[in-house]
Amino acid sequence: MTTIIDGKAIAADVRAKIAQAVTAMQSRHNVQPALAVVLVGDDPASHVYVRNKGIATEKAGMKSIEHRLPVDAAEEDVVSLVRDLNADDTVDGILVQLPLPGHISSSRVINEIDPDKDVDGLTEVNAGRLILGKEGLVPCTPQGSVIMAKTVRPNLSGLNAVVVGRSILVGKPLSMLLLAENCTVTMAHSRTADLPAVCREADILCAAVGIPRLVKGDWVKKGAIVIDVGINRIEEQGKTRLVGDVDFDAAKENASAITPVPGGVGPMTIACLLRNTVVAAARRRGLGAVD
Ligand code: NDP
Q1: Domain spanning 140-266 has what CATH number?
Q2: Is 228 one of the annotated active-site residues of the chain?
Q3: What is the residue extent of each domain of the chain?
Q4: Which residues form the Tetrahydrofolate dehydrogenase/cyclohydrolase catalytic domain (predicted)?
Q5: How far apart are the CA of 165 and the centre of ligand 1, in A?
Q6: Same fold for the domain at 29-114 and the one at 140-266?
Q7: Does any ligand 1 atom lie closer than 6 A to the CB of residue 156?
Q8: Binding site membership: which residues?
Protein backbone atom coordinates (compact mmCIF):
# COMPACT_ATOMS: atom_id res chain seq x y z
CA MET A 1 0.00 0.00 0.00
CA THR A 2 1.36 3.39 -0.95
CA THR A 3 1.04 6.09 1.71
CA ILE A 4 -0.32 9.36 0.39
CA ILE A 5 1.42 11.93 2.57
CA ASP A 6 -1.33 14.31 3.65
CA GLY A 7 0.14 17.81 3.60
CA LYS A 8 -3.05 19.41 4.89
CA ALA A 9 -3.16 17.19 7.97
CA ILE A 10 0.56 17.55 8.70
CA ALA A 11 0.35 21.32 8.22
CA ALA A 12 -2.64 21.46 10.57
CA ASP A 13 -0.56 19.60 13.14
CA VAL A 14 2.36 22.05 12.77
CA ARG A 15 -0.03 24.99 13.05
CA ALA A 16 -1.66 23.58 16.18
CA LYS A 17 1.78 23.21 17.81
CA ILE A 18 2.64 26.77 16.80
CA ALA A 19 -0.60 28.08 18.29
CA GLN A 20 0.26 26.27 21.54
CA ALA A 21 3.76 27.78 21.57
CA VAL A 22 2.27 31.25 20.98
CA THR A 23 -0.21 30.80 23.84
CA ALA A 24 2.61 29.70 26.14
CA MET A 25 4.74 32.71 25.12
CA GLN A 26 1.87 35.04 25.85
CA SER A 27 0.97 33.58 29.23
CA ARG A 28 4.55 33.08 30.46
CA HIS A 29 6.32 36.07 28.94
CA ASN A 30 3.55 38.41 27.79
CA VAL A 31 4.95 38.28 24.25
CA GLN A 32 2.87 38.13 21.08
CA PRO A 33 5.09 37.28 18.09
CA ALA A 34 4.55 39.61 15.13
CA LEU A 35 5.09 39.02 11.43
CA ALA A 36 5.45 42.00 9.08
CA VAL A 37 4.81 41.43 5.39
CA VAL A 38 5.91 43.94 2.76
CA LEU A 39 3.96 43.95 -0.49
CA VAL A 40 5.02 46.19 -3.37
CA GLY A 41 2.72 46.66 -6.37
CA ASP A 42 -0.55 45.18 -7.62
CA ASP A 43 0.25 41.59 -8.58
CA PRO A 44 -3.09 39.81 -7.90
CA ALA A 45 -1.47 36.48 -6.94
CA SER A 46 0.83 38.24 -4.46
CA HIS A 47 -2.16 39.99 -2.90
CA VAL A 48 -3.87 36.62 -2.38
CA TYR A 49 -0.71 35.08 -0.86
CA VAL A 50 -0.24 38.02 1.49
CA ARG A 51 -3.87 37.93 2.59
CA ASN A 52 -3.66 34.18 3.27
CA LYS A 53 -0.44 34.61 5.24
CA GLY A 54 -2.06 37.36 7.31
CA ILE A 55 -5.10 35.21 8.10
CA ALA A 56 -2.92 32.22 9.02
CA THR A 57 -0.71 34.40 11.23
CA GLU A 58 -3.68 35.75 13.19
CA LYS A 59 -5.26 32.30 13.46
CA ALA A 60 -2.07 31.12 15.13
CA GLY A 61 -2.48 33.91 17.70
CA MET A 62 0.28 36.12 16.30
CA LYS A 63 0.17 39.71 15.19
CA SER A 64 0.09 40.30 11.45
CA ILE A 65 1.34 43.62 10.06
CA GLU A 66 0.98 44.49 6.38
CA HIS A 67 2.87 47.24 4.59
CA ARG A 68 1.74 47.98 1.06
CA LEU A 69 3.78 50.15 -1.27
CA PRO A 70 2.73 51.32 -4.74
CA VAL A 71 4.12 49.62 -7.84
CA ASP A 72 6.29 52.67 -8.59
CA ALA A 73 7.85 52.78 -5.12
CA ALA A 74 11.58 53.49 -5.29
CA GLU A 75 14.05 50.81 -4.23
CA GLU A 76 15.24 53.17 -1.49
CA ASP A 77 11.70 53.37 -0.08
CA VAL A 78 11.49 49.59 0.21
CA VAL A 79 14.98 49.39 1.73
CA SER A 80 14.11 52.14 4.18
CA LEU A 81 10.90 50.32 5.25
CA VAL A 82 12.85 47.09 5.79
CA ARG A 83 15.40 48.99 7.92
CA ASP A 84 12.59 50.46 10.02
CA LEU A 85 11.16 46.96 10.56
CA ASN A 86 14.62 45.67 11.50
CA ALA A 87 14.84 48.40 14.13
CA ASP A 88 11.31 47.82 15.46
CA ASP A 89 11.69 45.59 18.50
CA THR A 90 8.03 44.50 18.40
CA VAL A 91 8.52 42.88 14.95
CA ASP A 92 9.87 39.31 15.05
CA GLY A 93 9.60 38.28 11.40
CA ILE A 94 9.91 40.20 8.13
CA LEU A 95 8.81 38.84 4.79
CA VAL A 96 9.11 40.72 1.51
CA GLN A 97 6.63 39.23 -0.95
CA LEU A 98 8.30 38.28 -4.22
CA PRO A 99 8.39 39.04 -7.07
CA LEU A 100 9.19 42.73 -6.64
CA PRO A 101 8.60 45.12 -9.55
CA GLY A 102 11.40 44.91 -12.13
CA HIS A 103 13.09 48.20 -11.20
CA ILE A 104 13.81 46.98 -7.67
CA SER A 105 16.68 44.61 -6.86
CA SER A 106 15.16 41.69 -4.93
CA SER A 107 18.59 40.58 -3.85
CA ARG A 108 19.42 43.98 -2.33
CA VAL A 109 16.07 44.27 -0.54
CA ILE A 110 16.13 40.69 0.81
CA ASN A 111 19.66 41.08 2.10
CA GLU A 112 18.66 44.22 4.00
CA ILE A 113 16.44 42.05 6.24
CA ASP A 114 17.92 41.36 9.67
CA PRO A 115 18.89 37.65 9.30
CA ASP A 116 17.37 36.91 12.70
CA LYS A 117 14.00 38.22 11.43
CA ASP A 118 14.36 36.64 7.95
CA VAL A 119 11.47 34.16 8.24
CA ASP A 120 11.70 33.20 4.56
CA GLY A 121 15.34 32.19 5.15
CA LEU A 122 16.41 33.89 1.94
CA THR A 123 19.20 36.21 3.09
CA GLU A 124 22.77 35.30 2.21
CA VAL A 125 23.52 35.06 5.93
CA ASN A 126 20.88 32.36 6.45
CA ALA A 127 21.97 30.52 3.29
CA GLY A 128 25.52 30.54 4.69
CA ARG A 129 24.36 29.34 8.10
CA LEU A 130 22.51 26.44 6.43
CA ILE A 131 25.60 25.36 4.51
CA LEU A 132 27.79 25.71 7.60
CA GLY A 133 25.33 23.75 9.75
CA LYS A 134 24.79 26.73 12.04
CA GLU A 135 21.52 27.75 13.66
CA GLY A 136 19.52 30.02 11.35
CA LEU A 137 16.13 30.43 9.72
CA VAL A 138 15.49 27.81 7.03
CA PRO A 139 13.45 28.42 3.84
CA CYS A 140 9.86 27.28 4.36
CA THR A 141 9.16 24.98 1.39
CA PRO A 142 12.31 22.85 1.83
CA GLN A 143 11.69 22.72 5.59
CA GLY A 144 8.13 21.51 4.96
CA SER A 145 9.37 18.91 2.47
CA VAL A 146 11.71 17.34 5.01
CA ILE A 147 9.07 17.37 7.75
CA MET A 148 6.77 15.48 5.37
CA ALA A 149 9.40 12.87 4.47
CA LYS A 150 10.08 12.32 8.16
CA THR A 151 6.42 11.58 8.89
CA VAL A 152 6.84 8.31 6.99
CA ARG A 153 10.53 7.67 7.79
CA PRO A 154 11.65 9.51 10.92
CA ASN A 155 15.31 8.59 10.43
CA LEU A 156 16.55 9.45 6.93
CA SER A 157 20.18 8.69 7.74
CA GLY A 158 22.04 6.76 5.05
CA LEU A 159 19.33 7.05 2.40
CA ASN A 160 20.11 8.12 -1.16
CA ALA A 161 18.28 11.39 -1.80
CA VAL A 162 17.94 12.88 -5.26
CA VAL A 163 16.74 16.47 -5.54
CA VAL A 164 15.74 17.49 -9.04
CA GLY A 165 16.08 21.29 -9.30
CA ARG A 166 18.80 23.50 -7.85
CA SER A 167 17.04 26.81 -7.24
CA ILE A 168 18.02 29.06 -4.36
CA LEU A 169 14.43 28.96 -3.10
CA VAL A 170 13.93 25.20 -3.06
CA GLY A 171 16.45 22.78 -4.59
CA LYS A 172 19.67 23.98 -2.93
CA PRO A 173 18.32 24.46 0.60
CA LEU A 174 16.40 21.17 0.37
CA SER A 175 19.63 19.38 -0.59
CA MET A 176 21.42 20.95 2.39
CA LEU A 177 18.64 19.91 4.78
CA LEU A 178 18.75 16.32 3.50
CA LEU A 179 22.52 16.34 3.89
CA ALA A 180 22.03 17.51 7.47
CA GLU A 181 19.75 14.47 7.92
CA ASN A 182 22.75 12.35 6.82
CA CYS A 183 21.33 11.42 3.43
CA THR A 184 23.70 10.91 0.51
CA VAL A 185 22.47 13.71 -1.71
CA THR A 186 22.54 14.07 -5.49
CA MET A 187 21.47 17.42 -6.93
CA ALA A 188 20.07 17.04 -10.44
CA HIS A 189 19.21 19.86 -12.83
CA SER A 190 18.58 20.69 -16.48
CA ARG A 191 22.07 19.55 -17.56
CA THR A 192 22.03 16.26 -15.67
CA ALA A 193 22.93 13.36 -17.95
CA ASP A 194 20.38 10.53 -17.92
CA LEU A 195 18.00 12.02 -15.35
CA PRO A 196 15.78 8.91 -15.29
CA ALA A 197 18.75 6.73 -14.24
CA VAL A 198 19.76 9.25 -11.55
CA CYS A 199 16.20 9.32 -10.19
CA ARG A 200 16.01 5.51 -10.10
CA GLU A 201 18.83 5.51 -7.52
CA ALA A 202 16.76 7.58 -5.08
CA ASP A 203 15.35 6.28 -1.81
CA ILE A 204 13.95 9.80 -1.44
CA LEU A 205 13.11 11.53 -4.69
CA CYS A 206 12.30 15.25 -4.52
CA ALA A 207 11.12 17.16 -7.58
CA ALA A 208 11.32 20.97 -7.64
CA VAL A 209 11.44 21.81 -11.30
CA GLY A 210 8.29 23.51 -12.55
CA ILE A 211 7.59 21.10 -15.44
CA PRO A 212 4.26 19.25 -15.19
CA ARG A 213 4.74 15.50 -14.64
CA LEU A 214 8.39 15.54 -15.69
CA VAL A 215 9.19 12.62 -13.39
CA LYS A 216 7.67 9.46 -14.82
CA GLY A 217 6.46 6.44 -12.89
CA ASP A 218 9.33 4.24 -14.03
CA TRP A 219 11.89 6.81 -12.75
CA VAL A 220 10.76 5.93 -9.23
CA LYS A 221 12.55 3.10 -7.46
CA LYS A 222 10.30 0.51 -5.81
CA GLY A 223 9.65 1.66 -2.24
CA ALA A 224 11.00 5.21 -2.67
CA ILE A 225 9.56 8.22 -0.85
CA VAL A 226 8.51 10.86 -3.39
CA ILE A 227 8.22 14.52 -2.42
CA ASP A 228 6.68 16.60 -5.20
CA VAL A 229 7.30 20.32 -4.69
CA GLY A 230 6.07 21.38 -8.14
CA ILE A 231 2.89 23.39 -8.55
CA ASN A 232 1.90 23.70 -12.19
CA ARG A 233 -1.35 25.00 -13.62
CA ILE A 234 -2.34 23.09 -16.76
CA GLU A 235 -5.34 22.88 -19.08
CA GLU A 236 -6.62 19.32 -19.32
CA GLN A 237 -9.90 18.05 -20.74
CA GLY A 238 -11.19 21.62 -20.84
CA LYS A 239 -10.40 22.27 -17.17
CA THR A 240 -7.63 24.09 -15.33
CA ARG A 241 -5.84 21.71 -12.98
CA LEU A 242 -2.94 21.90 -10.56
CA VAL A 243 -0.39 19.15 -11.07
CA GLY A 244 3.05 18.49 -9.70
CA ASP A 245 6.40 17.77 -11.30
CA VAL A 246 5.77 14.04 -10.83
CA ASP A 247 3.34 11.86 -12.75
CA PHE A 248 1.44 11.04 -9.56
CA ASP A 249 -0.76 8.18 -10.79
CA ALA A 250 2.15 6.28 -12.31
CA ALA A 251 4.66 7.13 -9.57
CA LYS A 252 2.42 5.91 -6.76
CA GLU A 253 2.58 2.41 -8.23
CA ASN A 254 6.27 2.24 -7.29
CA ALA A 255 6.57 4.66 -4.35
CA SER A 256 6.10 3.57 -0.74
CA ALA A 257 4.92 7.11 0.05
CA ILE A 258 4.18 10.15 -2.11
CA THR A 259 2.94 13.72 -1.68
CA PRO A 260 -0.06 14.73 -3.81
CA VAL A 261 -0.51 18.04 -5.65
CA PRO A 262 -2.50 19.90 -4.48
CA GLY A 263 -2.60 19.05 -0.77
CA GLY A 264 1.03 18.04 -0.38
CA VAL A 265 3.99 20.35 0.10
CA GLY A 266 1.90 23.48 -0.64
CA PRO A 267 0.08 23.70 2.73
CA MET A 268 3.37 23.11 4.55
CA THR A 269 4.93 26.32 3.26
CA ILE A 270 2.70 28.70 5.25
CA ALA A 271 2.84 26.38 8.29
CA CYS A 272 6.65 26.59 8.24
CA LEU A 273 6.50 30.37 7.82
CA LEU A 274 4.47 30.55 11.04
CA ARG A 275 6.95 28.18 12.67
CA ASN A 276 9.88 30.36 11.62
CA THR A 277 8.14 33.43 13.07
CA VAL A 278 7.73 31.78 16.46
CA VAL A 279 11.29 30.44 16.33
CA ALA A 280 12.58 33.93 15.49
CA ALA A 281 10.55 35.47 18.32
CA ALA A 282 11.79 32.91 20.84
CA ARG A 283 15.44 33.28 19.83
CA ARG A 284 15.44 37.06 19.63
CA ARG A 285 13.81 37.35 23.02
CA GLY A 286 15.86 34.57 24.62
CA LEU A 287 12.79 32.45 25.43
CA GLY A 288 14.27 29.01 24.68
CA ALA A 289 13.69 26.45 21.94
CA VAL A 290 10.42 25.93 20.06
CA ASP A 291 9.44 22.30 19.33
P1 NDP B 1 13.14 27.46 -10.62
O2 NDP B 1 12.60 27.72 -11.99
O3 NDP B 1 13.81 28.54 -9.88
O4 NDP B 1 14.15 26.21 -10.72
C5 NDP B 1 13.85 25.09 -11.47
C6 NDP B 1 14.98 24.10 -11.41
O7 NDP B 1 14.60 22.98 -12.19
C8 NDP B 1 16.29 24.62 -11.96
O9 NDP B 1 17.35 24.28 -11.08
C10 NDP B 1 16.43 23.92 -13.29
O11 NDP B 1 17.75 23.57 -13.65
C12 NDP B 1 15.67 22.65 -13.06
N13 NDP B 1 15.17 22.10 -14.32
C14 NDP B 1 14.52 22.76 -15.31
N15 NDP B 1 14.23 21.92 -16.32
C16 NDP B 1 14.71 20.71 -15.97
C17 NDP B 1 14.73 19.45 -16.60
N18 NDP B 1 14.18 19.24 -17.80
N19 NDP B 1 15.31 18.43 -15.97
C20 NDP B 1 15.87 18.61 -14.73
N21 NDP B 1 15.88 19.78 -14.09
C22 NDP B 1 15.30 20.84 -14.69
O23 NDP B 1 11.91 26.87 -9.79
P24 NDP B 1 11.63 26.81 -8.20
O25 NDP B 1 12.67 26.00 -7.54
O26 NDP B 1 11.34 28.16 -7.67
O27 NDP B 1 10.26 26.00 -8.19
C28 NDP B 1 10.18 24.69 -8.66
C29 NDP B 1 8.74 24.21 -8.59
O30 NDP B 1 8.32 24.24 -7.23
C31 NDP B 1 7.75 25.09 -9.34
O32 NDP B 1 6.73 24.25 -9.86
C33 NDP B 1 7.16 25.99 -8.28
O34 NDP B 1 5.85 26.41 -8.58
C35 NDP B 1 7.14 25.04 -7.11
N36 NDP B 1 7.17 25.71 -5.80
C37 NDP B 1 6.28 25.28 -4.87
C38 NDP B 1 6.25 25.85 -3.63
C39 NDP B 1 5.29 25.31 -2.64
O40 NDP B 1 4.89 26.03 -1.72
N41 NDP B 1 4.90 24.04 -2.73
C42 NDP B 1 7.12 26.96 -3.27
C43 NDP B 1 8.11 27.28 -4.28
C44 NDP B 1 8.10 26.67 -5.50
P45 NDP B 1 18.90 24.65 -14.04
O46 NDP B 1 19.35 25.21 -12.73
O47 NDP B 1 19.91 23.82 -14.72
O48 NDP B 1 18.23 25.66 -14.91
Answers
A1: 3.40.50.720
A2: no
A3: 29-114, 140-266
A4: 5-120
A5: 5
A6: yes
A7: no
A8: 165-167, 231
pLDDT recorded at residue 154? 98
Q: Model pTM? A: 0.96
Q: What's the confidence (pLDDT) of residue 289?
A: 73
Do residues 232 and 244 lie in contact, with contact meaning Cβ atoms separated by under 8 Å? yes
Q: Is the CB of 171 under 6 A from ligand 1?
A: yes
pLDDT of residue 288: 75
Pick the CATH number of 29-114 from 3.40.190.10, 3.40.50.10860, 3.30.450.20, 3.30.499.10: 3.40.50.10860
Nearest CA to ligand 1 atom 19: 190
How far apart are the C-alpha atoms of 53 and 236, rounded to whole Å? 30
Q: Is 186 a pocket residue for ligand 1 (Cβ < 6 Å)? A: no
Residue ranges of the chain with pLDDT lower than 70? 291
Residue 290 has a pLDDT of 73
Residue 277 CA neighbour count, 13 Å, CB half: 36
**Structure ipTM over 0.90, yes or no:** yes
Beta bridge partners of 242: 233
Q: Tell how far the Cα of 210 is from the centroid of ligand 1, in angstroms.
A: 5
In 155-212 the beta strands, taken as DSSP E runs, fall at: 160-164, 184-188, 204-207
The reported pLDDT for the residue numbered 261 is 98
